[in-house]
Amino acid sequence: MVALAKIIAVGLTFGLALTGAARGEQLITPAEAALPSPPEVALTLRGITRGPAIEQIEPAPDTKEVASPMSLKVAFSARNNATIDPSNVKVTYVKAPLVDLTERIKAYVTPTGIDMKQVELPPGDHVIRIDLKDSQGRPSTTTIKLSIKK
Q1: CATH number, residue 104
Q2: Structural domain includes residue 8
């Protein structure tokens, strides 16, 4: 009887672990999504030199809506023999007030980009700003918009 109880407990624990893994990494909480959006502001960047390129790969930038959990992939490309240090990447959820997502995404950032296989986001539209610098100190900033099905 005790052995059967142990087998059931192990099976239940294993099942819960699998359920958690299938859900994905919570990038934005429902409470954060409920924060007000900031007023529309134009992002103006000026400079003589070009910083690294930041390109949204998944979901494709022209995708209307995606289901959560989803894959989030962003590519970084340094220029002029520079490199990108992942510790110089900052990710922010554009809300009022701004929500720093850098710690949540840090494990998925490499010198070539961000690659998260299973990302959990609440339904709605989400604007995320990515800031980074290359090894020569040149900055780049971009925003990506993610629309999650309701």
Answers
A1: 2.60.40.10
A2: no
Q: Is 54 exposed, middle or buried (0-12, 13-18, 19+ CB in 10 A)?
A: buried
Question: Who's near 122: CB < 8 A, 6+ residues apart?
Answer: 28, 29, 30, 33, 68, 148
Q: What is the extent of the structural domain holding 47?
A: 26-148
Structure tokens at 126: 């989400």
Q: What is the pLDDT of residues 5-47, one digit of tens each?
A: 333 333 333 333 333 334 678 888 988 988 988 876 555 555 5
Q: In whole angstroms, give the CA distance from residue 134 to residue 111.
A: 10
Q: What is the pLDDT of residues 56-107, one digit of tens each?
A: 999 999 999 999 999 999 999 998 889 999 999 999 999 999 999 999 999 9
